[in-house]
């Protein structure tokens, strides 16, 4: 990272709609990881969604309406931590485009500039040191497309996993390849999406890992659901929850 | 279609002027930074070109025609087309060991020439089809191998097409240097040295002198001032013809030369 | 919905059901990605040359009308006849005019995507002119009566066995040998006779240099050189965006194109043509023609965002890296340009009525953007085309063709729910309580649950948990 901000005492947490509905425990785990580093975590109850579903579907006005509803929830200059590379990417990279020419453009740009993906924040800002209290386990990491390519999160999650003494991290073949979720893509092109997640599941099986850890809940819905439906041994888990379990010893 | 021309250009100009585009500066430094030491260039060129099945022969100013003649004879190559008015062509004839080319009439058709890198001598139309050369090279065994017939490329393509496509086995050209970055020869066809010399015969032999080795394509075109006067055709050649269009399996000699032989002429 | 519109969903289903095809693509694309990565092992070099190549292309676009005029002027001075075509019909008519004038019976062609765009082969054949593709992959595809499935490797969808069967079926004297070297040699023999006899050679153009009036073509096989050197007439076709300003602009493009496309440091041949045979020269075509095709490109150019589509140098690396392309192959797109670049280029050329579905055949994973050698923001353009598809009017042909009242309502409802904290709380509470009771037979869930378990609502939202744990709200 080109700029390492001074360690803050207070951060905002933007949970994202998928975490809210399907993975709230992972969302809480992220909050607790931040708290464990001595931070005050603020979770604005007015938050909903970053607007990405409509933005990527061609309905920019609807996306703008939703994004705008989030803007006033994060006053001041504290960092905004997001337990999702995709939603973080939407806010950081696409909000400035979405608000271009709008009266609140400056505010959107200011908010966007404060957005961090969770593992990026843990590594680069908090420089966390994790102590593993869990049983030995083999895991693999699934890199979400937007975490990698919009947020530049490539090594951070793996660095965190490697801090855990009893965790064997096996690199996934074709780690960078999309799992086939793609938001509305999965329902617009279900067969292609199924073929993509099929390849991903085969690659995960090839690692012999008990868990596939990821930082994005869209991927986890897709991959985890396919692992379950295929009665595979591996299970998907959000990295926040995995890390929290490891440092608490369960 | 003049209407199309004007309407296209007008539309482009009009819309561009509404939304002008400011390109970033073109910084050529990343290419200019690619440098190799003098002694590294030739080995690098050789390594890169050999990796794609180019063959190399070493010779000197004094002996290259004889070395070539011997090589072709050993390989059972029956005919070599060359550019008689070029410096290389004159040297070839002079050093070949005969006063003048054996014949102006090309050798009889020999089918498809050599197979995939197969240098065996057992072709029914092989060396035996040619009488022993009247002026063999000195040195015992070597002298017994028949030298290929030299065929001057001294007329328009139209008058040489059948022989060029159907019987002539090898073609000789000079080069205007080579490029270290990619392992590429610079070919500069002229009125005297036609383009098809390096294209149609199954074997292309290229003379490479070691005093014109460039780091990059960019450096070669700058140093030689290409932009001031481009000839009809300039080529970079980096190996024999190849394809991977069948299941990504590399196969050599699809349309152009099956073999590329670089004759390095050391000072 | 246009009844003639290509149906990507149906075509991709068929492709997915073909394990041979899927295997062929998976293997080929994995190999190509690996080879490309090896060529760009030096990240600093990649970033530097890539920035330069992008700058070269952007400079060319910034001066596009002036450079095209300069190209015309210098080509003309060099003896190349320049023709302008607004549409593919115009371009085909120009080609036919030349062919008729020289009484051409046999045409040999090197690879040219623009002529695929023009469906030139069909036009020539219906005029009684024999036309032969000479790039081995193109030749195979032509023999097979299909179209290229990849812009660089046209026959990548077929394996050696399939090609051996095809040759056996179509070429006399062909033995049934599943051996790439044998099959290549067979094609060599057939095509050399054609190069020798051809009346006209045709080619594409990788870059046309305005400064010198030079046409640059790169290739490995030598067929491009044959087509542009041996027949008495050469006709080159280029999209109007293919111009570059200076001769020096060629090396950065040539440096990235083959490395990106196939992972080779350079193609076997870089062929720079600056005119027909001059007096005293012994070979080369007596006539060289350059056909500059618009076919919608000037419309793309008009929009400052969509304009970036025209940076493309046609390396095909975006296909190799596209997880969707890798699954379904090139034919599923039923377009001259498949894969990511096709998904943004073809809808702009052919319109959103016919091609409005193409920009949705993408997970927006950005793998293509990451490797594009000229930094085309493919996914941003994809997103923009999704907007244009549902927005009547606008910059793209048939804008709004995919607008649907029902979809419009869905997104309005979604926005209303997510823009109001109260509505959001009520809606998420309802979903959390009742969502898991939704039957898997519901339209979207049915597709999802074919290979996945149903997403499980957690019961309590993160909002609930945060409140319960006393996480501050502000």
UniProtKB/TrEMBL annotation, chain A:
<dbReference type="Pfam" id="PF02754">
    <property type="entry name" value="CCG"/>
</dbReference>
<dbReference type="InterPro" id="IPR004017">
    <property type="entry name" value="Cys_rich_dom"/>
</dbReference>
<feature type="domain" description="Cysteine-rich">
    <location>
        <begin position="11"/>
        <end position="92"/>
    </location>
</feature>
<feature type="domain" description="Cysteine-rich">
    <location>
        <begin position="139"/>
        <end position="223"/>
    </location>
</feature>
<protein>
    <submittedName>
        <fullName>(Fe-S)-binding protein</fullName>
    </submittedName>
</protein>
UniProtKB/TrEMBL annotation, chain C:
<dbReference type="InterPro" id="IPR037171">
    <property type="entry name" value="NagB/RpiA_transferase-like"/>
</dbReference>
<dbReference type="InterPro" id="IPR009051">
    <property type="entry name" value="Helical_ferredxn"/>
</dbReference>
<dbReference type="Pfam" id="PF13183">
    <property type="entry name" value="Fer4_8"/>
</dbReference>
<keyword id="KW-0249">Electron transport</keyword>
<protein>
    <submittedName>
        <fullName>Iron-sulfur cluster-binding protein</fullName>
    </submittedName>
</protein>
<dbReference type="InterPro" id="IPR024185">
    <property type="entry name" value="FTHF_cligase-like_sf"/>
</dbReference>
<dbReference type="InterPro" id="IPR017900">
    <property type="entry name" value="4Fe4S_Fe_S_CS"/>
</dbReference>
<keyword id="KW-0813">Transport</keyword>
<feature type="domain" description="4Fe-4S ferredoxin-type">
    <location>
        <begin position="353"/>
        <end position="382"/>
    </location>
</feature>
<dbReference type="InterPro" id="IPR024569">
    <property type="entry name" value="LutB_C"/>
</dbReference>
<dbReference type="Pfam" id="PF02589">
    <property type="entry name" value="LUD_dom"/>
</dbReference>
<feature type="domain" description="4Fe-4S ferredoxin-type">
    <location>
        <begin position="302"/>
        <end position="324"/>
    </location>
</feature>
<dbReference type="InterPro" id="IPR017896">
    <property type="entry name" value="4Fe4S_Fe-S-bd"/>
</dbReference>
<dbReference type="Pfam" id="PF11870">
    <property type="entry name" value="LutB_C"/>
</dbReference>
<keyword id="KW-0411">Iron-sulfur</keyword>
<keyword id="KW-0479">Metal-binding</keyword>
<dbReference type="InterPro" id="IPR004452">
    <property type="entry name" value="LutB/LldF"/>
</dbReference>
<keyword id="KW-0408">Iron</keyword>
<dbReference type="InterPro" id="IPR003741">
    <property type="entry name" value="LUD_dom"/>
</dbReference>
<keyword id="KW-0004">4Fe-4S</keyword>
<keyword id="KW-0677">Repeat</keyword>
């Amino acid at each position: 990272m080109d700029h390492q901000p001074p360690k803050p005492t207070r951060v905002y947490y933007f949970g994202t709609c998928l975490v809210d509905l399907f993975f709230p425990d992972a969302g809480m785990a992220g909050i607790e990881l931040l708290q464990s580093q001595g931070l005050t975590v603020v979770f604005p109850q007015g938050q909903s969604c970053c607007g990405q579903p409509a933005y990527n579907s061609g309905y920019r006005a609807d996306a703008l309406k939703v994004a705008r509803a989030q803007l006033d929830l994060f006053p001041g200059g504290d960092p905004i931590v997001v337990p999702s590379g995709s939603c973080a990417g939407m806010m950081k990279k696409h909000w400035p485009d979405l608000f271009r020419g709008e009266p609140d453009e400056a505010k959107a740009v200011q908010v966007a500039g404060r957005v961090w993906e969770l593992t990026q924040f843990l590594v680069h800002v908090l420089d966390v040191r994790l102590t593993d209290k869990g049983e030995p386990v083999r895991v693999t990491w699934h890199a979400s497309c937007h975490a990698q390519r919009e947020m530049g999160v490539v090594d951070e999650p793996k660095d965190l996993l490697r801090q855990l003494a009893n965790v064997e991290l096996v690199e996934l073949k074709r780690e960078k390849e999309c799992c086939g979720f793609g938001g509305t893509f999965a329902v617009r092109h279900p067969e292609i999406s199924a073929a993509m997640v099929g390849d991903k599941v085969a690659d995960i099986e090839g690692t012999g890992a008990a868990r596939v850890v990821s930082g994005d809940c869209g991927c986890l819905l897709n991959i985890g659901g396919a692992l379950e439906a295929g009665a595979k041994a591996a299970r998907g888990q959000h990295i926040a929850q995995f890390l929290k379990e490891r440092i608490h010893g369960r | 279609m003049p209407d199309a021309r004007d309407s296209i250009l007008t539309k482009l100009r009009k819309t561009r002027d509404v939304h002008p585009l400011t390109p970033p500066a073109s910084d050529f430094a990343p290419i200019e930074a690619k440098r190799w030491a003098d002694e590294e260039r030739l080995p690098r060129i050789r390594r890169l070109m050999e990796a794609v099945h180019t063959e190399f022969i070493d010779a000197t100013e004094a002996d290259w025609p004889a070395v070539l003649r011997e090589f072709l004879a050993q390989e059972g190559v029956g005919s070599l087309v060359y550019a008689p008015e070029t410096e290389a062509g004159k040297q070839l004839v002079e050093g070949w060991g005969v006063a003048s080319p054996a014949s102006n009439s090309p050798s009889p058709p020999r089918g498809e020439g050599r197979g995939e890198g197969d240098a065996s001598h057992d072709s029914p139309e092989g060396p035996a089809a040619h009488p022993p050369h009247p002026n063999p090279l000195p040195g015992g065994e070597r002298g017994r191998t028949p030298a290929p017939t030299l065929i001057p490329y001294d007329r328009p393509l139209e008058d040489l097409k059948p022989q060029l496509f159907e019987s002539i086995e090898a073609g000789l050209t000079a080069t205007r240097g080579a490029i270290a970055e990619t392992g590429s020869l610079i070919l500069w066809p002229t009125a005297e040295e036609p383009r098809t010399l390096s294209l149609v015969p199954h074997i292309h032999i290229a003379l490479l002198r070691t005093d014109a080795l460039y780091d990059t394509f960019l450096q070669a075109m700058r140093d030689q001032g290409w932009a001031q006067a481009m000839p009809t055709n300039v080529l970079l050649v980096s190996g024999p013809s190849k394809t991977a269009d069948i299941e990504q399996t590399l196969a050599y000699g699809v349309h152009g030369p099956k073999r590329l032989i670089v004759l390095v002429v050391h000072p | 919905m246009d009844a003639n519109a290509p149906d990507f969903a149906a075509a991709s289903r068929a492709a997915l059901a073909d394990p041979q095809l899927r295997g062929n693509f998976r293997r080929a694309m994995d190999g190509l990605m690996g080879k490309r990565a090896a060529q760009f092992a030096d990240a600093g070099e990649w970033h530097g040359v890539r920035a330069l190549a992008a700058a070269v292309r952007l400079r060319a676009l910034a001066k596009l009308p002036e450079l095209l005029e300069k190209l015309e002027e210098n080509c003309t001075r060099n003896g190349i006849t320049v023709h302008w075509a607004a549409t593919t019909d115009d371009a085909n008519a120009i080609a036919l005019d030349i062919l008729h004038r020289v009484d051409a019976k046999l045409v040999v062609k090197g690879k040219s995507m623009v002529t695929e765009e023009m469906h030139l082969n069909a036009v020539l054949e219906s005029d009684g002119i024999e036309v032969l593709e000479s790039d081995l992959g193109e030749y195979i595809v032509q023999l097979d009566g299909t179209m290229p499935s990849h812009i660089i490797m046209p026959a990548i969808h077929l394996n050696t066995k399939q090609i051996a069967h095809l040759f056996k079926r179509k070429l006399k004297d062909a033995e049934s040998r599943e051996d790439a070297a044998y099959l290549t040699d067979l094609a060599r023999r057939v095509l050399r006779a054609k190069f020798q006899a051809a009346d006209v050679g045709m080619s594409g153009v990788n870059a046309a240099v305005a400064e010198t009036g030079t046409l640059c073509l790169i290739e490995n096989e030598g067929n491009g050189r044959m087509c542009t050197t041996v027949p008495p007439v050469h006709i080159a076709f280029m999209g109007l965006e293919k111009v570059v300003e200076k001769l020096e602009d060629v090396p950065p493009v040539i440096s990235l194109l083959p490395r990106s496309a196939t992972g080779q440091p350079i193609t076997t041949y870089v062929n720079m043509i600056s005119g027909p045979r001059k007096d005293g020269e012994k070979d080369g075509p007596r006539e060289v023609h350059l056909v500059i095709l618009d076919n919608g490109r000037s419309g793309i150019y008009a929009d400052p965002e969509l304009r970036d589509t025209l940076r493309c140098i046609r390396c095909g690396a975006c296909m190799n890296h596209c997880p969707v392309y890798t699954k379904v192959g090139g034919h599923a797109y039923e377009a001259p340009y498949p894969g990511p670049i096709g998904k943004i280029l073809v809808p702009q050329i052919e319109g959103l009525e016919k091609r409005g579905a193409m920009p949705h055949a993408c997970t927006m994973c950005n793998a293509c953007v990451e490797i594009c050698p000229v930094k085309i923001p493919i996914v941003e353009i994809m997103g923009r085309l999704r907007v244009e598809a549902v927005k009547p009017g606008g910059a793209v042909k048939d804008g709004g063709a995919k607008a649907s009242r029902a979809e419009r309502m869905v997104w309005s409802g979604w926005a209303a729910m997510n823009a109001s904290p109260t509505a959001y709380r009520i809606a998420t509470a309802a979903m959390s309580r009742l969502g898991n009771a939704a039957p898997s037979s519901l339209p979207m869930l049915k597709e999802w649950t074919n290979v996945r378990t149903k997403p499980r609502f957690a019961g309590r939202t993160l909002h609930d948990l945060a409140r319960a744990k006393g996480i501050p709200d502000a």
